[in-house]
Amino acid sequence: VFEDANLEHACLGAQAAIFSGAGQSCVAGSRLLVHRSIHDRLIDMLSSGMNKIQLGDPLADATEVGPISNARQFE
Q1: Which of 9, 27, 51 is closest to 1 using CA atoms?
Q2: Judging by beta carbons within 10 Å of its beta carbon (0-12, 13-18, 19+), is residue 8 exposed, middle or buried?
């Protein structure tokens, strides 16, 4: 993520790459390259956003991420 990037868009994109497959995809993002000058701010945004993701029953309307496929992916 370059220092002049839209951090909100970068954060949403990173979250989608990491969590959209609930650990069932071999293309999930596992690394994020971030310019030093925005690192702390982006990490704070990611942390805040990730804490808002609704985990739960995949059949429930409010659920955004269902069960993680295995213990390794969960950790």
Answers
A1: 9
A2: exposed
At 52, is the secondary structure helix, strand, or coil?
helix
Is this prediction's pTM over 0.85? no
Nearest to 42 by CA among 67, 72, 13: 13
Phi then psi for 66, rounded to 5 degrees? -85, -160
Cβ count near 16 (within 10 Å)? 12
8 Å CB contact between 3 and 37: yes
Domain ranges of the chain: 7-74
Q: When comparing pLDDT for 73 and 38, which is higher?
A: 38
DSSP 13-47: HHHHHHHTTTT--TT--------GGGHHHHHHHHH
Q: Which residues pair with 55 in a beta bridge?
A: 65
